[in-house]
Amino acid sequence: MTISEEKRDNILPASLHGGRLQIDNLSVRFGGVRVFQKLNITIDKGEVLGIIGPNGAGKTTLVNVITGSVSATEGRIFFDGHEITGRSTHAVSRMGVVRSFQQTSTFRPASVRENISRAILFSGASDSVWQRISGLLEEFELSPQLEERSDKLPYGQQKMLGLVMSYVTSPRVLLLDEPAAGLDRRERHRVDRFLDEARRNLGCSILIIDHDMDLIRRLCPRVLVLNAGSVIADGRPADVLSDRSVIDAYLGSGDEE
Ligand SMILES: Nc1ncnc2c1ncn2[C@@H]1O[C@H](COP(=O)(O)OP(=O)(O)O)[C@@H](O)[C@H]1O
Ligand SMILES: [Mg+2]
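A: This is the predicted complex of the input protein with magnesium ion.
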């Protein structure tokens, strides 16, 4: 029995199911630099949306403004109909809108176990969540490393730890900024595995930003292309990735890897 089959038998509280994120007329400016101008994006309940685009397009800023670490200059963000614009990162994450913990933001001198415990504590989840991640820890080869310092782990495993740490907070919308960057081929497939687990067992909506077009094709039924703060394409990967304006703005530039 795979982990997913085993876990599907668990009945999840309704609160764990995915939420709808709606971005209305969002503008962000840093001094004189305009990152977005009246951006509109909706992520439906349970949807997996890929966002791609050249460096500097505003992808990370989008995640930052959703999660409250950057302020919107204009516009509003709603989560399941509740406005979250301007709320703190902590408030937004407690509602279930969570970005993956980055390798650089793991609690550095702590052990793998302690990092996961802190993520559980931070989100107010219960310790029973440990049972639900045992399969992921096994597959990511983190089980034998639980007592090791997280900052001594190889890079790929630190990234996997970051994903596990976001998972234990039971997100309803998960925002993944370049989860596959710097990973080798085998590790990239662990990102697939993680997404599958998150979708099946948490039912969460997922926004995934990455430069790995194979990964985006595999995981995202819908892809949106951001270029200089504007959406230049939005649709099925096959259509979007063969779109002339997308090739000109991004794919043709050799920027995709
Ligand atoms: N804190 C900041 N202060 C000033 N400019 C910023 C800040 N964060 C991002 N930017 C600028 O916003 C633009 C978009 O950056 P970013 O969101 O990181 O793009 P991407 O993730 O698509 O590569 C860039 O021009 C970047 O220099
Ligand atoms: Mg970025």
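The beta strands are 21-30, 33-43, 48-52, 74-79, 82-83, 97-99, 173-177, 205-209, 222-227, 230-235. DSSP finds ten helices and ten strands in the chain.
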